[in-house]
Write a structure and sequence with these properties.
By secondary structure, this protein is mainly α. The chain has helices spanning 4-11, 24-38, 50-61, 69-76, 78-105, 112-119, 124-157, 163-177, 183-210, 240-251, 260-265, 273-289, 291-296.
């Protein structure tokens, strides 16, 4: 007698556009079958609640890049800058909910590679391309964080060790904290990560507020260039390249969807993902929109 999982495997054969005719009841039956099968394993993946998923999303989204938004506003001005932030947030919500709905119709999707495979009609080329882009994204992110960690240790310690040695130290730290097999355990580290970033952003605002003047700037030293000013719109002479960099600097913060299929696949109730997404949207909107204008003097 064929099991529910056997039926799912049959539908994954080439030529079958899974998700085109799946009704909600069938989808939930499939999810329950996948969760039940997962709980029979020694290492259980589908165990996260939506609350822990929200914490995990916050840990992924609350990052150092928030502190670079002030520069974007200094280039775009606060009117185009705030509009860009709001539009990015709206597009983030629409695309994220659309992705979740598709995964609910295809609950066997476990990562962005599977997502690309099914979206493009079960194309193996799409699967390989998605895998390559995921790998490239992770490599670049790892390199960025290793460099950032090395710079932080260099600045805080004042030690004679070179940046290369600090990079090795940060790499070892990264390997150690990456050992947990499930996102359920990683979510606890996300709590600590989010708390640290929250403190960093708060200190960032306090220090910027109590200083009488900035130490230096992109276009000259204070007070040589006069009082610090903010503008509603880009100043005359602002180049297209600078505006595009500022826009990309903002939109980059709103593109964590590459990890959503993985997060959803490790939830015990994937249908609750919109709750976690709503928490993330509120946190992101506050942190991405409020601190940068405050620091820019708007």
């Amino acid at each position: 007698m064929a099991t529910r999982m056997d039926e799912i495997d049959e539908k994954k054969q080439g030529g079958y556009a899974l998700g085109t005719e799946v009704d909600p009841s069938t989808s939930f039956d499939t999810i329950n079958a996948l969760v039940a099968e997962d709980h029979e394993h020694d290492i259980k993946l589908r165990t996260m609640s939506w609350q822990k998923t929200a914490v995990l999303l916050a840990g992924d989204q609350v990052c150092l890049a928030i502190m670079a938004q002030s520069w974007s506003l200094s280039v775009l001005g606060w009117v185009p800058g705030i509009i860009t932030m709001v539009l990015s947030g709206i597009l983030f919500w629409i695309t994220s909910i659309t992705m979740h709905k598709y995964i609910m119709k295809n609950p066997q999707i476990k990562d962005i590679c599977d997502f690309g495979y099914y979206v493009f009609g079960q194309s193996k080329a799409a699967y390989v391309f998605s895998a390559f882009m995921l790998l490239a994204n992770n490599i670049l992110l790892i390199g960025f964080h290793v460099l950032t960690g090395a710079k932080v240790l260099n600045t805080l310690s004042g030690h004679t060790l070179c940046t290369a040695v600090f990079s090795v130290i940060v790499t070892i730290m990264g390997v150690i904290v990456s050992t947990p097999r499930t996102l359920h355990h990683v979510s606890f580290m996300s709590m600590f990560s989010s708390a640290c970033m929250g403190i960093a952003i708060l200190l960032f605002l306090i220090f910027a507020g109590i200083e009488t003047a900035p130490l230096y700037g992109y276009y000259g030293d204070y007070p040589t260039d006069g009082p610090v000013k903010t503008y509603a719109f880009p100043l005359p002479g602002t180049t297209f390249v600078n505006c595009m960099n500022a826009v990309l600097n903002i939109t980059f913060l709103w593109v964590p969807q590459i990890l959503f299929p993985t997060f959803i696949s490790e939830m015990e109730r994937p249908q609750d993902f919109p709750k976690a997404l709503a928490v993330l949207a509120v946190i992101s909107a506050i942190l991405f929109i409020v601190p940068p204008p405050s620091d820019s003097g708007i």
